[in-house]
Amino acid sequence: MITVSAVDDDQMLLDGFTAWLTSCPDLRMVTAARTVDELLREEADPADVVVLDLFLADGSDPVRNVRRLAELGRKVLVVSVVPHMTHGIDVVRAGARGFLTKDHDLRTLTEAVRAVARDGVAHSPELAFAWANDCGPDRPRLSTQERKILVAYASGMTLAAAARRAGVQPATAKKYLDRVKEKYCQVGRATYTKIDLANRVREDELDRYPRGCSTSPVSSRVASIRPAG
């Protein structure tokens, strides 16, 4: 049984989602709240997944809301009527496991909840594309080979193994990694060690969405619902 808590000030959505879950034998709503503060106050036991509205009527900051929950180890799925993908990128960086716009149906929402509960990700096609092509000032532009070597090396491979995977010599792979470190330092994100490199891969989800990826969804409803990693 996957337990779900929802934070949303749209009572119609809360009622509809709660009613829908009664038809899902593997899902159960345990808490419905209008703010994150209320959720943390009222929730007797932490639910497996928190479905969180992006903008709440209390005016709380969406990124801070996600970060508060993520720091408590909560799995957060953000939903929003706002289609602007900058917000989606911001909350994913803050720790959200998924982001869906509210034009998706309840079946898609429950599929996303299941994916997040399994430590997966669940993003709309628009967010998957926006994330893959994010060119924010704190995110350096990496070449295809730089990214390939970075992801392989940060995953735990030796430099020689990462070079073989990319089809280059170890000396060339080392040059790519040196460039990657330099590019991250240039945007104010100090990167010197293998642990630093692994942190950048995790923070920027470089192992999930290759740049320039197609916007074609995996299904007709959600672009990416799959295990993380």
Automatic annotation (TrEMBL):
Matches recorded under Gene3D superfamilies: 3.40.50.2300, Winged helix-like DNA-binding domain superfamily/Winged helix DNA-binding domain (1.10.10.10)
Pfam families registered for this protein in UniProt: Response_reg
Metal-binding listed as a keyword: no
Top-level taxonomic group: Bacteria
Boundaries of every Response regulatory domain copy: 3-117
Record keywords: DNA-binding, Phosphoprotein, Transcription, Transcription regulation
Modified residues (4-aspartylphosphate): 53
Signal peptide: none
UniProt-listed PANTHER family: TRANSCRIPTIONAL REGULATORY PROTEIN NARL-RELATED (PTHR43214:SF24), TWO-COMPONENT RESPONSE REGULATOR (PTHR43214)
Protein name listed in UniProt: Response regulator
Lineage: Bacteria, Bacillati, Actinomycetota, Actinomycetes, Pseudonocardiales
